[in-house]
Amino acid sequence: MNDKRKIEEPVILDFDFEEAMKRVAQTDPREVTSLVAADLPEETIDTLLKAFEDAARETETGNQFWVARELAPLLGYADYRNFVAIVEKAKTACRQMRLDPNDHFVDVTDMIEIGKGGKREVDNIHLDRYACYLIAQNGDPRKRPISFAQNYFAIQTRRQELADEQGIDFDALSENQKRLYLRNQVVEQNKLLAKAAKGAGVQNTQFGKFYNRGYQGLYGGRNMDEIRTYKKLPDKAQILDHMGSTELAANLFRITQTEERLRSKGIRGSEAACDAHYEVGAKVRQTMSELSGIMPENLPVAEDVKKIATLERKQQRLRHATPQERAAQLPPQPKASDPVEIDLRADLWKYALLIMSVRPNGEISTADMIAEMPSYIHLSEDHTAVNASRKDSKFSQIVRNLKSHKTTKTNFIYQGYAQDVPGGFKITRKGLDFVREYFKN
Fold it and tell me: Which terminal residue of the chain has fewer beta carbons within 10 Å of its beta carbon, N or C?
């Protein structure tokens, strides 16, 4: 638990590293504002975020780029010569990842005004988002703008890559879908890690120790058994199967970077490979501490991902089914002959979702909802009695409140289970997921 070693400066990160940490935080640009909020003097995270966005330019084809002489002061470099030295380090890192720096760092000559209408030529560099990311990673971490930029450019770089190459809008995925995606990524990346470890000299009998060293670095000295104990998981449980998307992403981060390090650094010997795995894990832990302050061992335990995979396959079939097929696949529903007793104010929305789930396109009008609901739930005379002053019953008013209170944080529309459509409601994918889980027994 107290296995502490000096962490080398710094581990060169690639896209997969950041894929993990951005997804870890499940961020959008606004969420970046909370990453390094402490210890900023006059500058705020909001102003830095705006400064980076405002400094971006666009090519004729719509691709964003930054200009080195404008980016340097934003990152805290008053002397441009010092900034150029960081750019050269970033180019070296780019080459180490087998990429051509000329694709990301474009040398140009710009004209600047020197007073009294005069101009002169100066060297400059046009930087794409990945170049900015590499510069930030190789900058002085003691500079608060650098600390912010490391997170900002990494998040935006990987987000764009996912959208361009894989067509995946990670923000649009549900938590369960994120878990499934990341868990599959971990499986594939672990295969590459095992191959790299074997190439470094890790023998079959040493793989248990090798994998534990990575966990120990990431989990503050805890090995796999100790993680299970800490998280109160069964002895034989696969800890990766019980991780949420944040924790899975942190582990994906650890795996991809260790594999990259073993290959790029030419590490040889079982002990050296184990040490490298530990050091990368510790670096990931340090990054998580800086991003959110929440350590991986303290992230919530999630339902077994294998169950989620089974449910997702069913849901995929359900989403492509006709309304009649969808109704047949849903769990048994309460019948008109046997309506259930519920707390109307607390649980009515759940039965509203159930009714929507078997309607064409998942939609229903408010009037139809009021008419159909008594087939599913028991209503007392007090609930159905018409209020003379309002010409409405207590029950129908509660149903209408599902829509009129949509801006309340506890409302099922606000929480994304249903949509407010003209004259009624429409169930969302999140709502369908809930119906299948809540009414399965």
Answer: C
